[in-house]
Write a structure and sequence with these properties.
It contains 17 helices and no strands. It is mainly α. α1 packs antiparallel against α5 and α1 packs across α6.
């Protein structure tokens, strides 16, 4: 795969396979049950609102604990933490695949998210350690970025195949043999990183995780019972208090889990905010569009998964587009264009109704794929812009946290939108459901519009730096 000494090339190819296998397995698990939600709801007795916890339990635990997982890798060794996370993920996947009840499935999904939070931060550091040559590293990072960008849509396709021909449970159980293979290869091929002295900011990790959990729980309850209920207001109030406390803790901590100085850069802060917005929009699109295709248009789980293939292809293709385009055009200008393109695709998709054909859905998905695929890559670059080597781990953790929490918060908010649009009807007809899905995509279009505004701020900041030297490759590729 990489042209150096044959033995070294083979070794690095296996390292890349192990790391990408883990990354893909854990990324696609955020969406692999999406095409099976209708079947899971009927089999285990979920309500419309509680159904979103199948996704949120995983994504919230994943995003909320990523910063703690990154810090644990620094202190204990990346390979050690990677293996521990993979062991737990494999066991939790077995539990989820065999879950006899809704509560146990949600608990197992939360365990999967916790495991991913510890394994995933180590993958990037191990990748960079294993590919010290700039050209090889850039190529490996490009493939890695494609997996992150396309993982969710790949999960929908794979989940559709399993649900159609076997059972939705196999979308979770397939992780068991994959995990065993990764665990068998990891001790032999993955390098260990040095342990760094220090301690874990447990108070900061606790407040941010519980605060984000309370926020999402409050939003889910708002979708179920409305905004005026104490079950909605209390967790939302707790979320505000805990997240404010988290900021104060990080400002005073000697070894903060998130150095507040990372937010001093307009580029980085804008990248985090934009990522939350567009991932929230896209993740919710996967969730709601799959239900539209099955519940309104009557597609099978397999056919639903196949609809997402063009979108997946665009994600992978945009990696190469960005690599060729960035030397010739402004990165911030390209980001602005990509966000606007994705917004156009989402606005186009929001025109659906109960009679929209599948063929009419494919063009807006292609436009979405082009815009989203470019934007995700560039936002990763901006999120790591001008980061000091000592802060690289924390900055990488913030990029991943924004990605996962964006999906969780976006889905929770848009579940509220859907519930309001269908007037909280527990069994809406096809026309009413289609109206609800269109309303969701309308609001998701607004997410992209907000991201364009943020990108304009980043564009101004980027032009002010025009005279300052920049790295020729994303900083993340040379951070560790």
């Amino acid at each position: 795969m990489f042209p150096t000494r044959p033995s070294g090339a083979r070794h690095r190819a296996i390292v890349l396979m192990v790391i990408l296998g883990c990354q893909l397995m854990m990324t696609l698990d955020a969406s692999i049950v999406t095409t099976a939600l209708t079947h899971i709801k009927a089999e285990l007795g979920f309500t419309d609102s509680s159904l979103s916890w199948i996704q949120n339990a995983y994504v919230l635990a994943f995003g909320g604990l990523l910063l703690l997982g990154a810090r644990a890798g620094d202190l204990l060794g990346r390979r050690r933490v990677f293996i521990a996370g993979t062991v737990l993920f494999t066991a939790a996947s077995l539990l989820a695949g065999l879950a006899p009840s809704a509560g146990l499935l949600i608990a197992a999904r939360a365990l999967q998210g916790l495991a991913s939070a510890f394994a995933i931060p180590s993958t990037l550091a191990l990748l960079i350690t294993s590919f010290p040559e700039p050209e090889e590293r850039t190529r490996a990072i490009a493939i890695y970025s494609a997996v992150i960008g396309a993982g969710a849509s790949v999960g929908i396709i794979v989940g559709g195949v399993f649900t159609e021909y076997l059972s939705w449970r196999w979308g979770l159980l397939i992780n068991v043999p994959l995990g065993v293979v990764i665990l068998a290869l990891s001790p032999r091929f993955l390098p260990e990183t040095e342990r760094q002295p220090g301690r874990v900011d447990m108070l900061g990790a606790l407040t941010v995780t519980v605060g984000m959990s309370a926020l999402v729980y409050g939003l889910v309850e708002a979708a179920e019972i409305g905004w005026a209920s104490a079950r909605t207001l209390l967790p939302l109030t707790a979320a505000v208090v805990l997240l404010a406390a988290f900021v104060l803790i990080e400002l005073r901590a000697t070894q903060p889990i998130v150095p507040i100085r990372l937010f001093a850069s307009v580029q980085r802060s804008g990248a985090y905010v934009s990522r939350i917005l567009i991932v929230g929009a896209m993740f919710s699109t996967f969730y709601f569009l799959s239900q539209y295709l099955q519940n309104v248009r009557g597609l099978s789980p397999l056919a639903t998964g196949l609809v997402f293939i063009p979108l997946t292809g665009m994600f992978f293709a945009m990696v190469y587009v960005v690599r060729r385009a960035t030397p010739m055009v402004s990165r911030s200008g390209l980001l602005l264009t990509s966000l606007a393109t994705a917004g156009i695709g989402m606005a186009w998709l929001s025109r659906i109704d109960a009679t929209t054909s599948v063929a009419s859905i494919l063009p807006p998905l292609l436009v979405l794929g082009v815009g989203q695929g470019i934007a995700i890559i560039l936002l990763t670059d901006f999120g790591m812009a001008e980061v000091d080597p000592g802060d690289a781990g924390a900055a990488s953790g913030l990029v991943n946290t924004a990605h996962q929490l964006g999906g969780s918060i976006g889905l929770a908010l848009l579940t509220v939108v859907y519930g309001s649009a269908v007037h909280h009807d527990p069994a809406p007809d096809a026309v009413t459901q289609a109206h609800g899905f269109a309303a969701v995509f309308d609001v998701a279009t607004g997410f992209y519009a907000l991201a364009v505004v943020v990108a304009l701020v980043v564009l101004v900041a980027d032009r002010r730096r025009a005279g300052r030297p920049r790295p020729s490759a994303p900083v993340v590729a040379a951070s560790r």
